[in-house]
Design brief:
single chain; 68 residues; alpha+beta; three-stranded antiparallel sheet; 46% strand
Length: 68
């Protein structure tokens, strides 16, 4: 099964750690990162799509993607 996640967070070290943790769990970057201003918080937000292929499992909508 092929999985997709879109990671988001504030433009700080916590976002970089979130992406690094995903990479170390076997996720791969997919496409370019995004960067946008959040008018509600007054902060810049980052986003990055990641994908992962998991053999021997079938996708279900209730699965926690980050735990795969």
């Amino acid at each position: 099964m092929k999985l997709y996640r879109f990671l988001t967070g504030p433009d700080d070290a916590s976002f970089c750690h979130k992406v690094t943790a995903a990479l170390n769990k076997g996720w791969e970057l997919s496409g370019s990162p995004t960067y946008a201003f959040n008018a509600e918080t007054g902060l810049m937000q980052c986003g990055q799509a990641v994908v992962k292929t998991v053999e021997g499992k079938e996708y279900t909508p209730d699965m926690k993607l980050g735990e795969q």
